[in-house]
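TASK: fixed-backbone design
INPUT:
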């Protein structure tokens, strides 16, 4: 299997988000067709909601076995002076016989209280209940709440939310303001009523309405000329609450018509507000909109795959194949698509959406292609996060899938459970998720690299006791980790070719050494003076980099960067170009703090003869 050729993204100057046209100019024909859609079994676990001010919020999804609740911080449930929480449950056909709870400290290490929910009764299509805490709760302190639903067959489903206790939180009033604001955005005649909450500037939103902010005009906030209407209930999540401030997110879908074409969009809004007795201040507002990609919405014409409106950073794609047969895969909107460029057929390989169950379209799920077979067109990919449906519904981890292009068949190969939260999972998999020619898949999860034989379903530990923040990998399977040293930096770098198994090292000598990433095939690493690895006045151990080194694929050094008196505190790589956040060391008593010294850049001229995709 030859390496998947990553397509160079070239952003057209006049597009800030995109009306997604994936133009594969050398081999996508002007006319095409779309067909095929693979689906899994529907989700059916019960859903729990918190009931506040007559509204349902903080939708909770069930787990089929306990997880570490300290890692699950997606929602915050308020508790007032009555120390009660009102809950609603959509059973989805399950006969739930009892609901109990456990309250833990914020790290989920100490049990504070346990008990049962009371007053369970069916109201319309939902089951309502209440739980009450008896022990002392402390204001402005967070707790972890574990809820357990038991059905008539003694199966237990587990649900988690954070809890914050406080008096005079005014949650219902703050939520009403947010919902009223949202409702007003759909009434163009009321646009002026929103102006007093906005801080409008001349150029603060995308021309296609994919991004709208507090600084947008009232006309843009009220959808411009789109005239949309909501086609779903609003999913409300409370993210932050105290006496004065609160932060909410709203998620819903809309439909907009242009001529005879009706288009659906997924919308996510963020509100942060401050409440006073005399006025409500909107501190932050952001609305992101992405077209709901469906088979009927994709067109293959004029040398382009047109995917709709959205954010270019949310889309990933690559081409692969032979001289006779070419393919393009695309991921975005929690979906995976495969386009047969030669036969002009688009297939929807995978989607997280389930029309028969309110899966909430949570953001805490990811899709990543780990291998594409150029001879057959087959794809191997991982789906990670909470499993909404299928054989592993209600569990969290990594599912490895194989899609047979010839048979138009999706099969699950291996499931790797992981119960320490999505962010922990994503941070490792962003660094390493790679499958080699022999069918061995390497995944970095927390501090361990696992080697999985996807054909045999066998998993082994390849490397352990790592710090995922001190690891990196290239797109063609070169994995770099720190060796020796401590959690902050290593004494040397160990470099492993996951294709051949060959290893080599780069010694730090008198320095500590950390990998910083890859720019194309060039490895970037940093050197740190060990004496500078000390706590600052806030108690944080900083890792100020004195020198940045760049090596090509043959390990020849092609660039060294250092600036007298300055340290690199953060380095980011984008399209092969490197930006660095600089700081100067400043003594503060017995501590060393760092003062901002601006930014600097390294521009890399990386040759790339791959096909281009214009977004």
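OUTPUT:
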């Amino acid at each position: 299997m030859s390496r998947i050729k990553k397509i160079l993204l070239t952003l057209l100057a006049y597009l800030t988000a995109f009306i997604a046209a994936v133009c594969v100019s050398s081999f996508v024909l002007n006319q095409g067709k779309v067909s095929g859609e693979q689906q899994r079994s529907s989700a059916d676990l019960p859903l729990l909601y918190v009931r506040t001010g007559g509204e349902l919020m903080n939708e909770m999804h069930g787990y089929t076995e306990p997880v570490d609740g300290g890692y699950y911080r997606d929602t915050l449930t308020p508790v007032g002076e009555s120390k009660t929480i009102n809950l609603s449950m959509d059973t989805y056909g399950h006969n739930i016989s009892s609901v109990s709870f456990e309250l833990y400290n914020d790290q989920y290490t100490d049990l504070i209280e346990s008990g049962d929910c009371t007053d369970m009764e069916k109201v319309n299509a939902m089951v309502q209940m209440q739980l009450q805490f008896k022990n002392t709760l402390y204001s402005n302190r967070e707790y972890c709440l574990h809820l357990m639903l038991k059905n008539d067959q003694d199966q237990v489903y587990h649900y988690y939310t954070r809890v914050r206790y406080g008096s005079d939180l005014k949650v219902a009033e703050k939520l009403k303001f947010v919902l009223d604001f949202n409702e007003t955005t759909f009434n163009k005649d009321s646009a002026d009523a929103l102006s007093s909450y906005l801080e409008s500037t001349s150029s603060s939103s995308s021309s296609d309405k994919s991004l709208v902010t507090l600084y947008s005009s009232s006309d843009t906030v009220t959808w411009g000329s789109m005239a949309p209407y909501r086609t779903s209930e609003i999913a409300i999540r409370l993210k932050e609450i105290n006496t004065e401030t609160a932060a909410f997110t709203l998620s819903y879908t809309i439909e907009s018509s242009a001529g005879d074409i009706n288009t659906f969009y997924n919308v996510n809004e963020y509100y942060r507000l401050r409440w006073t007795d005399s006025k409500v201040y909107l501190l932050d507002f952001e609305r992101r909109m992405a077209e709901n990609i469906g088979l009927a919405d994709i067109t293959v014409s004029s040398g382009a795959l047109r995917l709709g409106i959205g954010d270019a950073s949310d889309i990933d794609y690559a081409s692969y194949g032979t001289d006779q047969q070419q393919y393009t895969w695309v991921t975005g909107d929690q979906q995976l698509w495969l386009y047969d460029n030669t036969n002009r057929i688009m297939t929807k390989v995978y989607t997280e959406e389930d029309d028969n169950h309110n899966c909430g379209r949570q953001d805490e799920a990811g899709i990543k292609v780990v291998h594409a077979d150029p001879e057959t067109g087959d794809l191997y990919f991982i789906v990670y996060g909470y499993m909404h449906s299928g054989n592993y519904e209600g569990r969290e981890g990594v599912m490895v899938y194989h899609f047979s292009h010839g048979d138009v068949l999706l099969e699950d190969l291996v499931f790797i459970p992981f119960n320490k939260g999505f962010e922990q999972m994503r941070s490792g998999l962003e660094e390493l998720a790679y499958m080699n020619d022999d069918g061995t898949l390497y995944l970095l999860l927390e501090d361990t690299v696992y080697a999985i034989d996807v054909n045999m379903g066998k998993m082994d530990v390849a490397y352990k006791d790592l710090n995922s923040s001190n690891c990196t990998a290239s797109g063609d399977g070169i994995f770099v980790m720190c060796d020796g040293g401590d959690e902050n930096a290593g004494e040397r770098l160990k470099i492993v070719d996951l294709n051949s198994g060959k290893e080599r090292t780069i010694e730090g000598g008198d320095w500590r050494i950390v990998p910083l990433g890859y720019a194309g095939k060039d490895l970037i690493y940093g050197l740190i003076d060990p004496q500078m690895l000390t706590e600052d006045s806030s108690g944080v151990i900083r890792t100020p980099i004195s020198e940045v080194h760049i090596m090509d694929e043959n390990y020849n050094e092609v660039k060294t960067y250092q600036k007298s008196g300055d340290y690199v505190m953060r380095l980011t790589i984008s399209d092969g170009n490197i930006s660095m956040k600089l700081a100067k060391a400043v003594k503060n008593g017995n501590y060393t703090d760092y003062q901002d010294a601006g930014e600097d850049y390294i521009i890399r001229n990386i040759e790339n003869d791959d096909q281009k995709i214009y977004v």
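COMMENT: The longest strand covers residues 261-275.
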